[in-house]
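Q: Structure tokens for this one, please.
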Amino acid sequence: FRDAYNLHKDNDHNSIDTLINVSNHYGELLESEKSKGKKNLSPREVNNVIKKGYETLSIQSKDGLDRWEKFREADEKAVLKKIARVAVEDVRKLLRER
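A: Here is the predicted structure, written as tokens:
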């Protein structure tokens, strides 16, 4: 998927890499459980693998998602008022044309 859509070229630290790492992590855990001699895992064993995966999974925030700026309406108040006024004026013009 990453190679098909050239996602690795734009940014080495993108979300697709995180998804691939999570998939690889759980794939390795499932294979290690299956290597214990069983062909298929029971639902309880799969549940245990998922819990173990949560405990051992390490995801690094590379996209700046660990910090964000809170939206403040006051910062954009003038622009929002202008947008509202233009929208109201457009509706008035449409109603007058009828």
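A few notes: Residues 18 and 60 are 8 Å apart (CA to CA). The chain has a mean pLDDT of 81.
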